[in-house]
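Researcher: I'd like a candidate sequence for this fold, 533 residues long. If you have to choose between options at a position, lean toward the conservative one.
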């Protein structure tokens, strides 16, 4: 537990900060929504559910991921979200109209649960609209992935859609396969929608840093090469349609090698053009409206009004405390010389704690993480009165994503449990994972972290399931790491506890480096040096 000033910031608040990621109906047509019912809470909940479906309609992928693209909503399974400027405008218009509709409901007359739902929606939509008012970037409505760059090394349809089609789009019959092909046919338009926005951003001087573009270009080249040969987009469909009559291979191959590859080539050409204009300046301060954009992103990610200076200081304070806890463990392991950072760097290179840099090592990483998940399952009744299944599988990230992706990320599956939650592991460089870092990573990304929390969220009203505040979901995952410690995961294992403390220290460092880069005008080299030390 971090010994910070608890009069100003609780442990859970600190963890949350360290974590800090075509509507068919016009919402203005208020008479179309179920606004008037005898019970005020029933009326408000009915309206919120209607609003939720408007958002789902604008993001059909979410319907599939949640397993709700069925019945009258089955048509969503053949569609993709519109990532163009016009598509973004529709989302913003939906939020504005929804807030007007909510103003008709007297919160004083609502039951506590409904009142909370209304407050959540008002907060999420208001903050998102402030983001939509900025001249560029992607806005996650109550989500984690606010980004100034619509297509870059870790975001963009070129990464998201192939992974989504393979992992979330379920295929059990010919209709599902036809829906896959329909989505594949819509993929080029989705890519071109993004292309229009990154071109427009370049037109006002918003070009990502050169080092990020270099990663994005390498990854898009891989994606283009794969699509040009049919690749994963075809293989995913063919593999899952064995026994389902149809000319699936040829039809998917025609789409992948033709319009999809052409759209990827157009995006790649734009990224290369931007690379010619790019600088190495990492911070948002170097972009037009950068200080304004960063101020909004900081507020959206943390749900606070804390300034960059305050968050910078919080990170330094937390790191000092954590290093104090790490010091005696390092001493006990025989690492006695140098700063904590220097000794942790040396520890990270110790071959005793690394996996072999091959497929055998990759398999061992997955097996080790699975073992930690199995361990913590047995301890969770000690910490939770209400348990959820924890439907989970551990998978390797697609190689095309690995260069620009984090070490891992995770999330829940569908509401009905048919699509399992996943921990996605970046196994391109096996050396980024150590034996002492995997336990806390399993607890953070899987159980009782993101996958577990997502299953709880799936039990909430649909609007609440959709609005996954970054500070809350990441705060939960970081608290899940402390539960691993409190439930005995590191009893007799000082090295494992050191990995847990390093994980929390990593987030504290993020507070310092993020504000350093974007508000204090640190160079990338300065940030890397400080982080490593």
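Model: Candidate sequence:
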């Amino acid at each position: 537990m971090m010994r910070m000033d608890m009069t100003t910031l609780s442990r859970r608040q600190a963890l949350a900060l360290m974590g800090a990621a075509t509507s068919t109906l016009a919402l203005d047509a208020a008479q179309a929504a179920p606004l008037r019912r005898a019970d005020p809470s029933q009326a408000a909940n009915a309206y919120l559910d209607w609003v939720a479906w408007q958002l789902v309609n604008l993001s059909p992928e979410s319907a599939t991921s949640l397993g709700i693209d069925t019945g009258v909503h089955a048509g969503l399974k053949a569609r993709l979200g519109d990532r163009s400027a016009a598509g973004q405008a529709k989302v913003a218009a939906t939020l504005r109209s929804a807030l007007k509709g909510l103003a008709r409901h007297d919160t004083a007359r609502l039951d506590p649960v409904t009142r909370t739902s209304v407050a959540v929606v008002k907060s999420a939509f208001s903050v998102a609209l402030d983001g939509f008012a900025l001249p560029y970037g992607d806005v996650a409505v109550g989500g984690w992935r606010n980004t100034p760059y619509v297509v870059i090394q870790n975001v963009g349809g070129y990464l998201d859609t192939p992974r989504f089609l393979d992992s979330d789009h379920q295929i059990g019959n010919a209709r599902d396969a036809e829906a896959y092909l329909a989505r594949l046919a819509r993929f080029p338009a989705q890519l071109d929608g993004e292309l229009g926005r990154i071109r427009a951003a370049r037109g006002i001087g918003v070009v990502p840093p050169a080092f990020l573009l270099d990663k994005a270009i390498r990854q898009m080249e891989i994606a283009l090469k794969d699509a040009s040969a049919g690749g994963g987009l075809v293989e995913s469909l063919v593999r899952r349609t064995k026994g389902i009559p149809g000319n699936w291979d040829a039809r998917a191959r025609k789409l992948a090698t033709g319009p999809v590859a052409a759209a990827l080539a157009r995006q790649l050409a734009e990224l290369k053009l931007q690379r010619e204009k790019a600088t190495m300046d990492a911070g948002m301060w170097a972009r037009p409206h950068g200080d304004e954009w960063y101020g909004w992103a900081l507020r959206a990610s943390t749900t606070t009004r804390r300034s960059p200076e305050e968050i910078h200081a919080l990170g330094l304070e937390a790191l000092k405390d954590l290093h104090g806890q790490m010091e005696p463990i390092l001493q006990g392991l025989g690492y006695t010389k140098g700063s904590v950072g220097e000794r942790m760097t040396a520890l990270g290179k110790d071959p005793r704690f690394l996996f072999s840099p091959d497929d055998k090592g990759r398999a061992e990483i997955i097996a080790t993480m699975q073992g930690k998940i199995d361990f913590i399952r047995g301890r969770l009744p000690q910490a939770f009165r209400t348990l959820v299944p924890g439907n989970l599988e551990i998978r390797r990230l697609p190689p095309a994503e690995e260069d620009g992706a984090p070490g891992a990320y995770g999330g829940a599956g569908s509401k009905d449990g048919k699509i399992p939650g996943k921990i996605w592991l970046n196994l391109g460089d096996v050396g980024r994972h150590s034996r002492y870092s995997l336990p806390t990573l399993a607890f953070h990304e899987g159980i009782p972290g993101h996958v577990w929390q997502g299953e709880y969220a799936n039990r909430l009203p649909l609007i609440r399931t959709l609005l996954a505040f970054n500070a809350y979901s990441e705060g939960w995952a970081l608290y899940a790491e402390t539960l691993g410690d409190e439930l005995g995961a590191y009893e007799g294992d000082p090295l494992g506890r050191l990995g847990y403390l390093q994980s929390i220290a990593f987030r504290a460092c993020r507070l310092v480096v993020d504000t350093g880069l974007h508000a204090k005008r640190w160079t990338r080299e300065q940030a890397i040096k400080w982080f490593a030390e």
